[in-house]
Amino acid sequence: MKSGKIISICMLAASGVIGFGAHSLQKQLSDKVLTQEAATTSFEQWQQDSKTLLPLQKQWKDTYLTAADIKDHFSVLKRLDLEGRYGVHLDTDRFTLTQNIGPYQFQGKSMGLIRVCVGNGEPILKMTAPSHELLIKALQQMGERPDFVFDAAQLTQEKEPTLVLSNPCLLVREV
């Protein structure tokens, strides 16, 4: 009878150990499931955010050339297309890239863009047109281009109406 009690106590103790082990295993599995669910939710959110950003990424790539697309000053001139887009005349023989080439920052933050600055032998770009009205219209349209920036603009009357842009730059993507 004593051995029956001992066996019963051993069985009870063994089932307690097994029960505690099963409970511990259950908790570990439950924690793993929660971790996996959180990771899946996070991934699904990232995937949704990525899909939401696709149109913006396309617009970014369509708006800005890559720096690798700029081979020389002729490729910059072609991209700007000042004569074709705006009807202004530019002395292309004097058109050059200036020394002011580097990262473009907005409010102290890098934008992932590079400034490729141009000029007529100096950091200004002179263009002419038959009238000041045409130059004003061209200036307004240039101001709407996200890939073309300049520090200042001045209308003058030399031999013909002239627009002078200070430090004009084409913005291109780093990658």
What does this structure look like?
The protein is α+β, with helices and mostly antiparallel strands. It has two domains: 1-63; 67-173, Alpha-Beta Plaits, CATH 3.30.70. It is built from four helices and eight strands; from the N terminus they run H-H-H-E-E-E-E-H-E-E-E-E. The strands form two sheets. A four-stranded antiparallel β-sheet has the order 1-4-7-6, with helices on one face. A four-stranded antiparallel β-sheet has the order 2-3-8-5, covered by helices on one side. The termini are far apart.
Head-to-tail CA distance between termini: 85 Å
Name the shape in a single word: rod-shaped
How would you sum up the major sheet? 4 strands, antiparallel
Number of strands: 8
Label the CATH architecture of the largest domain: 2-Layer Sandwich
Q: Helix amount, in percent?
A: 40-55%
Present the secondary structure layout.
Layout lengths: L1 H62 L9 H8 L1 H5 L2 E2 L5 E11 L2 E11 L4 E5 L3 H12 L4 E2 L2 E6 L3 E6 L2 E5 L2
Antiparallel strand pairs: 1-4, 2-3, 3-8, 4-7, 5-8, 6-7
Provide a concise account of the structure shown.
The protein has four helices and eight strands; from the N terminus they run αααββββαββββ. It has 175 residues and is an alpha+beta fold.
Q: Features of this protein?
A:
4 helices, Alpha-Beta Plaits, four-stranded antiparallel beta sheet, single chain, 175 residues
